[in-house]
Amino acid sequence: MITGQVKLCNDMEAIKCFNRAMNELECDVDLQQGRYVIDGKSIMGMFSLSLLEPINITVHTDNEAEIEPIKDYISDYSIE
Predict the structure, then answer these.
(1) Would you state the pLDDT for residue 20?
(2) DSSP structure class, residue 68
(3) What are phi and psi of 9, to 5 degrees?
(4) Residue 49: which pLDDT band, with cuts at 50, 70 and 90?
(5) How far is it, in rounded angstroms, from Cα 69 to Cα 58?
(6) Where are the alpha helices (DSSP H) in 1-80?
(7) In angstroms, rounded to a whole number, what is the distance separating the alpha carbons of residues 73 and 52?
(8) How does strand 55-59 pair with strand 2-6?
(9) pLDDT score at 23
(10) Torsion of CA 71, 69, 64, 10, to 10 degrees
C-alpha cells in the first residue's frame, strides 16, 4: 500500500483533474478524513469531504509506478 496526504483547493477544475487522474489508476484508492472513508474514484464522494483540510489517501498497490498519474497531488507518501 502507498499512503500519504492530498490537499486540494476548493476549485472545481482542480477537483475534476484530480478525479480524472484517479480514474486512470487500475488499483483501488481510498480517501479518508476523520472517520469518513470514500472510494477515491468517486467525484461525489470527494465533495462529501472538506476540501480545505488535508485528506489521507491509501492506494492499494506496492508498485510506485502505478501512482504516476496522481503523484503531484500526494505529499509525504510512503510505501508499506
Answers:
(1) 94
(2) G
(3) -75, 160
(4) confident
(5) 15
(6) 12-23, 43-47
(7) 14
(8) antiparallel
(9) 94
(10) 40
Nearest Cα to Cα of residue 10 among 68, 57, 58, 50:
50
Tell me the helix, strand and coil percentages in the chain, rounded to 5: 35, 30, 35
Nearest to 69 by CA among 23, 29, 28: 23
The DSSP call for residue 67 is G
What count of other Cβ atoms lies within 10 Å of the Cβ of residue 45?
Answer: 16
The arithmetic mean of pLDDT across residues 40-54, rounded, is 87
Please indicate whether residue 29 or residue 10 has the higher confidence score (pLDDT). 29
User: 78: burial class by Cβ within 10 Å (0-12, 13-18, 19+)?
Assistant: exposed
